Amino acid sequence: MSDFMKWLYAQYIKPRIDAAPGEEYESDLDLLRNSLERPYRQSYEKAAEFIALHAFQLGIRTGKGLADSFHN
Question: How far is C-alpha 21 from the chain's CA centre?
Fold first, then answer.
């Protein structure tokens, strides 16, 4: 993963995730995070970063694809 993507996650994506209302998912995510031992919690955070970055990239690609389809 590029340094830019790591920076983007830390500076933009993660703060947005943390600020988003979790409502029906918040208690389950907290339970999962708090039940993990330290090494597993680090793995969980790394997996969450991976998923969020790829979801972000998918959103960009999908948006670009949709924009291109409206010009035809």
Answer: 14
| Cβ atoms of 44 and 31 closer than 8 Å | no
pLDDT of residue 21: 86
pLDDT tens-digit readout, 15-55: 998 898 878 888 898 899 899 999 999 999 999 999 999 99
13, with CB counted inside 10 A (0-12, 13-18, 19+), is middle
Closest CA relative to residue 14, chosen from 50, 62, 43, 59: 50
∠ CA 48-54-57, nearest 5°, is: 140
∠ CA 66-71-72 to the nearest 5 degrees?
A: 105
